[in-house]
């Protein structure tokens, strides 16, 4: 069972810097952009020093929150209606200081927001930032732990057995959940490569992230220079017919004339601010056969 984290106290590692001279030199450039990252910084936003390197700027997080409620099954796979409603649970695997989680909560679409962070100080900042950003009590279910372990537990699926108390996360409804992952990128070494080799990303490379999130639909927040071919290859291993990158490239085997179902597309979106990309997000759809298999109640 996965426990909901209590409200954690801010510690000496959580800072709300107000003067440049107090800011460590290596994060000064980020602090100077603090109002672009958090327009409400002066309301009392807290970050650990490490969190500055990875936080998603608010305008980007807001746009992702608009884009991410995608149908788990975009076709008539489970319903006879031509429209499948988008997933209503989102799991933010790497909460950080809360940039994306807060945007998911403020967007108001999701019924359930589960946000996982393994560093207690960073989680305390995220909780505080959510509070001062106007996110209501209990809207976000925070989890203090390793997202890979937590996800394994959550992916066991819904059971009707046993009593689930208020401090425990209800297992996921697998047909109704989308995952968001903004992992550490292993420092800024990606900026020195024209095309970033995602197999070298540390501490978790593309394959490790995909393996953890599969078979749920998952949005991966990655360096803007990420190797699109590697993103596509991962997808092609599952969906041999096509790949659709950045809404432009559509590769299809020559012997098929039939239009491809929408879930056969991999959307990769660059998120820009002031004309420059901050990151890209690859939106991997669900693997419907595997998901259906896992979502079956035992014995069926
Ligand atoms: C790039 S930051 C996420 C930033 C976040 N999206 C935001 O806007 O603030 C990555 C975060 O993942 C956390 N992290 C790294 N490995 C983790 C793991 N295995 N489980 C949970 N959290 C992890 C780090 O402590 C860090 O805070």
TrEMBL record:
Pfam hit, one: Methyltransf_15
Coiled-coil residue windows: none
Protein name: Trimethylguanosine synthase
InterPro entries hit by this protein: RNA_cap_Gua-N2-MeTrfase, SAM-dependent_MTases_sf
Reactions catalysed: a 5'-end (N(2),N(7)-dimethyl 5'-triphosphoguanosine)-ribonucleoside in snoRNA + S-adenosyl-L-methionine = a 5'-end (N(2),N(2),N(7)-trimethyl 5'-triphosphoguanosine)-ribonucleoside in snoRNA + S-adenosyl-L-homocysteine + H(+); a 5'-end (N(2),N(7)-dimethyl 5'-triphosphoguanosine)-ribonucleoside in snRNA + S-adenosyl-L-methionine = a 5'-end (N(2),N(2),N(7)-trimethyl 5'-triphosphoguanosine)-ribonucleoside in snRNA + S-adenosyl-L-homocysteine + H(+); a 5'-end (N(7)-methyl 5'-triphosphoguanosine)-ribonucleoside in snoRNA + S-adenosyl-L-methionine = a 5'-end (N(2),N(7)-dimethyl 5'-triphosphoguanosine)-ribonucleoside in snoRNA + S-adenosyl-L-homocysteine + H(+); a 5'-end (N(7)-methyl 5'-triphosphoguanosine)-ribonucleoside in snRNA + S-adenosyl-L-methionine = a 5'-end (N(2),N(7)-dimethyl 5'-triphosphoguanosine)-ribonucleoside in snRNA + S-adenosyl-L-homocysteine + H(+)
Protein family according to the UniProt entry: Belongs to the methyltransferase superfamily. Trimethylguanosine synthase family.
Organism: Sporothrix stenoceras
CDD domains assigned to the protein according to its UniProt record, in alphabetical order: AdoMet_MTases (cd02440)
Name of the gene: tgs1
